[in-house]
């Protein structure tokens, strides 16, 4: 392919626009320039005209003044007469001097070069200063005329043979006024040097200029004479003359009546602007002129500025348009560049496709000769490039399909393109299926064909595999032992397998008239529509439900169905595939199992024992409520499923936790072991623990632990033992008591009997008799006391004792009691002190005084009995609502182990028969019983060897 390098389009509109702008600007510039030029020239001409006018006025004024000078002098009769006088007599020196004096004054006061006094012939008779004293040939011919007219005359500028410089003369006729005919007697000639006043007047210029000048000219024959000094050339002697015929010469033009020109050429032949004016009263013309160059210099600098601006303007426009064009070109080239890039990319792309295309690309001519191939073709057909190029297409066609080739080409010719499958052959003669997309292409007028081929061996293989697998799946479907059906989206049955037919009792053709819903119902009447919609929407992968199926014979079975979606290639839901499982029997079995399980569960929950079932790995399988209660273990711990965790939680409740966990863990490796032991808890509980393997089909699968709380049983046992011990003790006490009582009774009885019999002795002395009587009396009292005690205790035990609450004067009762011990006090040398806790007035109380005194009496007697030295104190204090009584001694005290027992019946610290102190062991138990009856309690504190204190309380009921 050749790339056409196109030029960027020429921006003609821009160029034309630019040219138009340039031309417009130039035309405008030219017009403007011309206009400005003309305006300027005219302005200058006018300016020159004004300056001419000014100068003409000045010159006229100056001339007028000169003539006035002349008239004034001529009319000065005195001076004129003097001069005439002198002319008549030139020898008259005084007159001459007087005249000279006047002349000096004139020269000094007026601006004249010199003054000459002439006679009528024009011969100078007197002059001042004394130079140029002659009248030249120019003036002399004028004099007769002046004498005739008697008029003052100012001559033109002239040169004369005697006067060397250009000058003018003011000629004053000297009129002799003494004569009637006013004869002119001479002339006074005042010579004027124009250099002094006139020329400067002419030459002066109101504004600085390098070329402007005014000049005066006069016509002499065919020439123009320049009268004054000129600016640009020397003309002191009126030597410059120019012919009148010079058309452009402003001076010449003046004489032709032209008053101004902007296109003149002056005496130097330099272009000038000029204004020409006649000077009145003279033959002179005034020419005021200025070089065009100078005039234009202003215009030129203006024009330069304008041109610079215009050039800048054009440049800017040019730049702008240039930029637009450049931009256009850049865009054009960029576009071109991008096109080129795209083309390049396209080439590369085609190249890439050709090189790496997975398809075979063949280009062949109308004779079926291959003209171009890609790499893939070489690879597939296994030919080298130069082998394949030029080869006829029929060579790569499998022999069996060569005959199809003309038909295929014909079809392409007719339709333009065609796609078909055929068989091709590699170099090694192996044949492979190929899918060809053939197209006719026209390359530079010649017809070619392009074949794009794809090796479809794998596809064919896949199709075959698919067919096979389809077959296999159909077989699986049809022969599956699971009932299966395919239904449309309306659940209308389309296909069923044999198992489904067996399950429902219908054959497949019959089922095709049913929908799935006809055949089934839900026990709870639930609607599957939503779930099926979700299934279609891919919200759920499958839909699982249980249904009752009505069989053809009317019987009902329970089936579990799993419905999934069959989608087409476009992923659209097409069919439902249902797989049913008859779960009637399973459900029945489950129900039976559930029933037996609930039975077991109920049994387990109702039992008093705790149960725990664990598997062989020590995971908790089951436990009952009783177990959690017995072990005081939260369900959360059990629900973690680890027995070991539970064991850790409970172990600290045990008295001996050591080895508790290990022993259980060991059992997991001995699945057959049966164990039983007793667990003892810190809180006093006892559990009987029993474990045995859980077996399924004679195989251990776990272990069942049962726990029985036998605390009560244990308690009963220990109570029984305690009771037995107690009974034995009681028995022993009783024996001791009897033994004791018999001793305690026998001793005073023996004394009574023995001493009573001695009383009968005739020779008994009085002193002995008294002693014996005393002993008998004491023994009787002792005996009585013992009997009283026995009676009291008997009454107490049979609850026969009554409390007799009466108003009692406590203080006086206690004082009487104290007095009862005075005798013993003296005998033993141990003081018995009483202290009262209330003033007498408040000590009137309500109580059973007899019992109170008996308690105190018992306690004091005990103290006396067990005290050998020291003292005994008793009394009471008020403690709240109670009266607190005390009996304190410094006796032998009570050993610690006996303290808790001394209030029991028959108890005595020293039970030996050889003991020092008598007694029955009943006193304190009677005291306790009486104190309780009086609404109080009794206690003892004691230190062996130091003493004992009994304290008891009774209610403080003050008698009102
Ligand atoms: P007894 O008739 O033997 O004195 P009690 O019941 O009065 O019987 O006393 C029981 C036992 O308590 C006494 O045998 C004695 O061992 C002890 N006991 C009682 N009171 C005192 C005490 N004050 N000091 C020492 N031991 C005492």
Give the SSE layout:
Blueprint: H1 12-74, H2 77-88, H3 93-109, E1 114-118, E2 124-128, H4 143-149, E3 153-154, E4 168-175, E5 184-192, H5 198-203, E6 213-220, E7 223-226, E8 241-243, H6 250-255, E9 260-265, E10 271-278, E11 285-291, H7 292-356, E12 360-365, E13 370-373, H8 375-381, H9 385-388, H10 404-415, E14 417-425, E15 431-443, E16 446-455, H11 457-479, E17 484-487, E18 493-496, H12 498-504, H13 508-511, H14 516-519, E19 520-521, H15 529-536, E20 543-550, E21 556-567, E22 573-582, H16 584-606, E23 610-615, E24 620-623, H17 625-631, H18 635-639, H19 643-650, H20 660-667, E25 675-680, E26 686-696, E27 699-709, H21 711-759, H22 766-797, E28 806-809, H23 810-820, H24 822-828, E29 832-835, E30 844-847, H25 849-866, E31 872-879, E32 882-889, H26 896-899, H27 923-933, E33 938-943, E34 947-955
Parallel strand pairs: 29-31
Antiparallel strand pairs: 1-2, 1-5, 3-4, 4-5, 6-7, 6-11, 7-8, 9-10, 10-11, 12-13, 12-16, 14-15, 15-16, 17-18, 17-22, 19-20, 20-21, 21-22, 23-24, 23-27, 25-26, 26-27, 28-30, 31-32, 32-34, 33-34
Helix pairs in contact: 1-7, 2-3, 21-22, 22-27, 25-27
This protein binds adenosine-5'-diphosphate.
């Amino acid at each position: 392919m050749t790339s056409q390098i196109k030029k960027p389009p020429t921006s003609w509109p821009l160029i034309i626009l630019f040219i138009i702008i340039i031309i417009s600007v130039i035309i405008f510039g030219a017009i403007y320039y011309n206009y400005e030029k003309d305006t300027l020239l005219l302005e200058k001409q006018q300016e020159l005209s004004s300056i001419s006018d000014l100068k003409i006025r000045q010159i006229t004024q100056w001339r007028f003044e000169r003539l006035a000078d002349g008239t004034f002098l001529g009319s000065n009769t005195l001076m004129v007469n003097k001069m005439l006088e002198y002319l008549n007599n030139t020898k008259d020196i005084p007159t001459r001097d007087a005249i000279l004096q006047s002349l000096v004054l004139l020269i000094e006061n007026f601006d004249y070069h010199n003054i000459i006094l002439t006679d009528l012939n024009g011969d100078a008779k007197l002059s001042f200063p004394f130079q140029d004293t002659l009248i030249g040939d120019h003036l002399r011919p004028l004099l007769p005329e002046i004498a005739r007219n008697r008029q003052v005359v100012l001559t033109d500028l002239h040169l004369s043979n005697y006067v060397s410089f250009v000058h003018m003369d003011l000629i004053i006729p000297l009129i002799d006024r003494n004569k009637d005919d006013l004869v002119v007697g001479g002339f006074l000639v005042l010579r004027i040097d124009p250099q002094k006043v006139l020329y400067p007047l002419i030459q002066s210029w109101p504004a600085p200029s390098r070329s402007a000048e005014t000049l005066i000219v006069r016509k002499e024959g065919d020439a123009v004479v320049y009268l004054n000094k000129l600016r640009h050339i020397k003309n002191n002697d009126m030597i410059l003359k120019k012919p009148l015929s010079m058309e452009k010469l402003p001076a010449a033009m003046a004489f032709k009546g032209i008053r101004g020109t902007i296109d003149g050429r002056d005496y130097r032949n330099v272009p000038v602007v000029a204004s020409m004016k006649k000077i009145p009263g003279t033959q002179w013309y005034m020419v005021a002129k200025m070089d065009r160059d100078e005039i234009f210099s202003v215009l030129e600098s203006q024009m330069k500025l304008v041109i610079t601006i215009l050039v800048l303007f054009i440049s800017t426009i040019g730049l702008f348009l240039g930029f637009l064009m450049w931009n256009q070109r850049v865009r054009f080239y960029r576009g071109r560049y991008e096109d080129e890039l795209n083309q390049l990319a396209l080439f590369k792309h085609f190249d890439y496709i050709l090189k790496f295309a997975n398809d075979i690309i063949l280009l062949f001519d109308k004779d079926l000769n291959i003209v171009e191939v890609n790499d893939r073709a070489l690879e597939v057909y296994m030919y080298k490039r130069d082998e394949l190029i030029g080869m006829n297409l029929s060579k790569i066609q499998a022999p069996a399909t060569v005959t199809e080739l003309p038909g295929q080409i014909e079809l392409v010719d007719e339709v333009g393109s065609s796609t078909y499958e055929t068989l091709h052959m590699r170099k090694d003669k192996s044949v492979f299926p190929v899918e060809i997309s053939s197209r006719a292409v026209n390359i530079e007028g010649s017809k070619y064909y392009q074949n794009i081929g794809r090796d479809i061996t794998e596809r064919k293989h896949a199709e075959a595999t698919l067919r096979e697998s389809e077959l296999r799946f159909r077989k699986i479907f049809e022969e599956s032992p699971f009932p299966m059906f395919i239904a449309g989206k309306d659940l209308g049955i389309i296909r069923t397998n044999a198992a489904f037919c067996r399950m429902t009792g219908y054959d497949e053709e019959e089922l095709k008239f049913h929908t799935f819903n006809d055949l089934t119902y839900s026990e709870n009447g639930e609607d599957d529509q939503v779930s099926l919609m979700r299934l279609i929407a891919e919200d759920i992968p499958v839909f699982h439900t249980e249904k009752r199926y009505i069989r053809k014979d009317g019987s009902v079975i329970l089936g579990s169905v799993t419905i999934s979606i069959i989608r087409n290639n476009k992923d659209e839901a097409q069919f439902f595939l249902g797989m049913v499982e008859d779960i009637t029997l399973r459900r029945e079995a489950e129900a039976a199992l559930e029933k037996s399980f609930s039975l077991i569960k109920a049994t387990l929950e109702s039992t008093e024992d705790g149960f725990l079932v664990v598997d062989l790995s020590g995971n908790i399988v089951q436990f009952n409520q009783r177990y959690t209660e017995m072990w005081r273990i939260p369900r959360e711990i059990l629900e973690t499923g680890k027995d070991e965790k539970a064991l850790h939680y409970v172990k600290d409740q045990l008295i001996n936790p050591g080895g508790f966990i290990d022993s259980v863990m060991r059992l997991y490796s001995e699945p057959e072991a049966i164990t039983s032991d007793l667990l003892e808890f810190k809180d006093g509980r006892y559990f009987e623990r029993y474990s045995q393997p859980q077996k399924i089909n004679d195989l251990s699968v776990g272990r069942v632990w049962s726990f029985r709380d036998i605390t009560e049983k244990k308690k009963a046992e220990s109570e029984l033992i305690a009771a037995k011990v107690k009974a034995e003790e009681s028995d022993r006490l009783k024996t001791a008591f009897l033994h004791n009582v018999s001793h305690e009774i026998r001793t005073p009885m023996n004394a009574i009997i023995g001493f009573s019999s001695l009383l009968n002795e005739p020779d008994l002395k009085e002193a002995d008799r008294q002693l014996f009587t005393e002993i008998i009396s004491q023994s009787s009292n002792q005996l009585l006391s013992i009997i009283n005690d026995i009676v009291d205790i008997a009454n107490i035990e049979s609850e026969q004792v009554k409390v007799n609450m009466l108003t009692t004067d406590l203080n006086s009762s206690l004082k009487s009691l104290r007095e009862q011990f005075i005798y013993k006090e003296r005998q033993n040398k141990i003081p018995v002190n009483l202290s009262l806790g209330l003033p007498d007035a408040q000590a009137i109380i309500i109580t059973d005084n007899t019992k109170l005194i008996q308690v105190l009496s018992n306690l004091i007697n005990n103290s006396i009995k067990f005290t050998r030295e020291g003292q005994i104190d008793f009394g009471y204090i008020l403690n709240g609502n109670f009266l607190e009584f005390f009996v304190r001694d410094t006796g032998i005290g009570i050993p610690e182990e006996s303290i808790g027992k001394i209030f029991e019946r028959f108890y005595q610290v020293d039970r030996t028969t050889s003991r020092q102190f008598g007694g029955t062991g009943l006193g304190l138990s009677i005291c306790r019983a009486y104190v309780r009856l009086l609404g109080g309690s009794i206690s003892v504190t004691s230190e062996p060897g130091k003493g004992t204190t009994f304290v008891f309380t009774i209610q403080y009921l003050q008698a009102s």
